[in-house]
C-alpha cells in the first residue's frame, strides 16, 4: 500500500472513528443524563414509580441495547408490545454496528497513526456540515426527529403507543434532544480539533 493510499485509508477511518466514538460516548453518558432527567421531568410522578425503579428499568433497557450476549428484551416494570420489542431489536443492531465500526476504525487509526496534515481540511468541512445540520435541527427538532427515524428504520415501530409500550413515558423527547446535543458537541469538537492540528504543530 502506497503512502497516499495509507493517507486516504487513515483519513476515512479517522472520520468514522470520530463519528462512532462520539456516539459511543453519548450512549454511555446517557445514564447520567437520564439520572438527572428523572427528577427534572418529574418522571416518578408521571409513571408512579420510585426513582430507583425507573433507573433499574432504564439500565435493563440499555443492557439489552449494548450487550451483544443479551437478545431477550425484558423490563421488570413495563410491558412491551411485539412492535415495541422489534424496534428495540432494530436499535440494538444499530448500536452493535456502531461499536463494531468504532473498534475496527480504531484499529486502523492505531496502525497507521501519524499526522496526515494535508487531509486535515476535510475534518473542517465535516465540522461545518455538522453545524449546518445542528442549525436545521434547532429550527424544527420534531421534523428532524421524524426524518432521523425514517432514515434509520424500515418501519414505523418507533412510533410507540404509551398504552402498549408505557416505557415511552419515561423517555421524554427532551432527553433525546440532550443526547443529540451532547453527540454534536463531542463530534464537532473532535473534527475542529483535528482540523486545527496542522496549524498548532507548525508553532
Compile the SSE list and pairings.
Layout (H helix, E strand, L loop, with lengths): L2 H38 L2 H5 L3 H16 L15 H30 L8 H20 L1 H12 L20 H23 L1 H6 L1
How many β-strand stretches? 0
Beta-strand content bin: under 5%
Low-confidence blocks of residues: none
User: What is the first-to-last residue Cα distance?
Assistant: 31 Å
User: What is the general shape?
Assistant: elongated
Range of helix content:
over 70%
Radius of gyration from the CA trace?
A: 20 Å
Secondary structure category? mainly alpha
| Annotation field: number of helices | 8
The largest β sheet comes out as: none
Give me the strand/helix succession. HHHHHHHH
Overall pLDDT confidence: 88
Number of domains: 1
Detailed description of the structure:
This protein is an all-alpha fold. It has one domain. The chain has eight helices and no strands. α5 (120-139) crosses α6 (141-152). The longest helix has 38 residues, at 3-40. It is elongated, with a radius of gyration of 20 Å. The two termini are 31 Å apart. The mean pLDDT is 88.
Amino acid at each position: 500500500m502506497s503512502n497516499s493510499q495509507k493517507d486516504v485509508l487513515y483519513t476515512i477511518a479517522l472520520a468514522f472513528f470520530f463519528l462512532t466514538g462520539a456516539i459511543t460516548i453519548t450512549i454511555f453518558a446517557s445514564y447520567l443524563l437520564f439520572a438527572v432527567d428523572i427528577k427534572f421531568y418529574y418522571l416518578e410522578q408521571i409513571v408512579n414509580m420510585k426513582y430507583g425503579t425507573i433507573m433499574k428499568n432504564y439500565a435493563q433497557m440499555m443492557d439489552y441495547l449494548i450487550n451483544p450476549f443479551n437478545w431477550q428484551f425484558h423490563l421488570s416494570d413495563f410491558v412491551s408490545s411485539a412492535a415495541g420489542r422489534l424496534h428495540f431489536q432494530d436499535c440494538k443492531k444499530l448500536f452493535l454496528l456502531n461499536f463494531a465500526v468504532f473498534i475496527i476504525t480504531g484499529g486502523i487509526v492505531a496502525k497507521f497513526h501519524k499526522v496526515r496534515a494535508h487531509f486535515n481540511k476535510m475534518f473542517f468541512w465535516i465540522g461545518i456540515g455538522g453545524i449546518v445540520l445542528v442549525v436545521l435541527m434547532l429550527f424544527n427538532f420534531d421534523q428532524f426527529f421524524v426524518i432521523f427515524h425514517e432514515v434509520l428504520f424500515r418501519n414505523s415501530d418507533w412510533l410507540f403507543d404509551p398504552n402498549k409500550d408505557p416505557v415511552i413515558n419515561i423517555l421524554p423527547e427532551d432527553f433525546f434532544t440532550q443526547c443529540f446535543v451532547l453527540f454534536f458537541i463531542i463530534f464537532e469538537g473532535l473534527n475542529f480539533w483535528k482540523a486545527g492540528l496542522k496549524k498548532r504543530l507548525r508553532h
